[in-house]
Amino acid sequence: MKLSLGPILYYWPIDQVRAFYTQAKDWPVDIVYLGEVVCSKRRELRLLDWLKIADMLEAAGKEVVLSTLALLEAESELKALQKICDNGDFKVEANDMAAVHLINSRPFVAGPHLNIYNVSSLELMQDSGAIRWVMPVELSAKTLGELQAQRPAGLETEVFAYGHMPLAFSARCFTARAHNVPKDACELRCIEFPVGMPLQTQEDQELFLINGIQLQSGLASNLLGEVDTLRELKVDVLRLSPQLEGMQQVVTAFDAARNGKQSKAIDSLMAAGTEWCNGYWHGEAGMLNVSAVLK
Fold this sequence. Notes:
Blueprint: E1 2-5, H1 14-24, E2 31-34, H2 47-59, E3 63-67, H3 75-85, E4 91-94, H4 97-103, E5 108-110, H5 119-127, E6 130-134, H6 141-150, E7 156-169, H7 174-178, E8 197-200, E9 206-211, E10 214-222, H8 227-232, E11 237-240, H9 247-258, H10 264-269
Parallel strand pairs: 1-2, 1-11, 2-3, 3-4, 4-5, 5-6, 6-7, 7-11
Antiparallel strand pairs: 7-10, 8-9, 9-10
Helix pairs in contact: 3-4
């Protein structure tokens, strides 16, 4: 079972992004996804910058995949997508069907935003060139088991195993609206919120994170306690979504768990009272924390 670092979902300054991946190259992750998934206005890093980071990670022995936008709204975004798909060196994670079309049957990863919910979709993706698919975050272990039993031969499965889940995208910008500014004149407010903006209920429960045009789960999803089940379901890759703090500890914990070892990192991440959720995995409301014991 491999570990992957998903794309950074937040808007971080370029120096912070470079520093993050300089550390990550020495972490026990097998695959690293790079690029902007949320908003095309986030241009701290251009394609050339991402490719330089990709070269560094590849030299460190990582498989590198370039991620693409989940919501395209302009001709300029389509042109930028074309350049990513035609990079010639690295596989692409398609998060929109436009990317699947532009990849033109070359090997790619079918991202979590393609809404793949049945075997027919899996077969269509494989016929289009997909070598791996990422399960939508709202599917349960039971549904995954049914899909795995019929999964086309040779197609790998990746599961979002840790991080604030990407739930929805909108043509409107939630961060801009929260600051009472128009989307087209947002002044890139997202960069002021490197872990997103918490959105709480009247009962002070963290319901969502606002991240530009994206809504994420208020609590981080954590499937560390489900690693044995994930292995039984023949999941090939566990995706860990980059966080601003404590990411090395998360990677260390999942690395120990996939190798059947106990560690202080596991104990810390699974500690009683820790706030995280795993409801979707158990077929319950996503925001719930259904008790699970690491075997």
